[in-house]
């Protein structure tokens, strides 16, 4: 029996010894980068928040176009005019038709009054009085129709003049004198210069840290023109697929100097550009009610262990060329070493071996 017992113990002990000799599991980690960067200015383009296609509300031949591309216009300024000869003829014809209808109505009223008097004396049958009343009603309807036709003709004549709906700049013309244009066909495009903004293309990591209403210092390279303070109006939700940039719209104040012209280059100072934006691959986050990551630490003896660390997450940065990254809003510091692969097979306090380590491409917080 004793040889059998010793043999059994040997069988059980040998695998345990082999297991004890196995090296700790290697891991893939990332060093969270948080290097600060100096404040910087980013170039943008001044644009208008409103671009309008201008068209006539009636059909006609373009007689004259008074403005061209690049011209500045003011509210109510005449921009173009249709040939008014045919439109004036329509007004004259409608006026004559109305006068004729009014004469016919006057005649019908007189005939009805005469017939009514005769019928009261018993000298006229009721049927003839009814016919006179119908004629009077028909004449009244003709007058109303003629009045509506004249109003429409006058409207068409007034629509033959195209005026600027606001202060702005003409950016394109699509018709020349002599062209026949239909109602609603654009003949020019203009931008509203009373509602200006600056368009800035920002890296996704910058854009993720911005909030609507955040203020920025905006300036132009024109001597004697003071900087102004703009505010973030919106960030376009879709980024450039190749460059991973997102466009931000910064509204200029209404009282910004006229020197801030549409199309000019403006410099935008991103306040607090020195604070770092920490990001990690989405694969590093342990899913659950409270998001967490595995942080690697090394003790004095050189033993490396992982600790489950709760984090708060910000926006996920979409990527078309690599793995998506998520903004770490709290719980980590720059320089922390985080496991980014195989996070679901680790346990708190587990010893890990050497790591394949990369440095994250953390963005700078604007």
From TrEMBL:
GO terms for molecular function: efflux transmembrane transporter activity. Belongs to the membrane fusion protein (MFP) (TC 8.A.1) family. Residues 1-20 form the signal peptide. This is Protein secretion protein. It comes from Ketogulonicigenium robustum. Gene3D superfamilies: 2.40.30.170, 2.40.420.20, 2.40.50.100, Helix hairpin bin. Keywords: Signal. GO terms for cellular component: efflux pump complex.
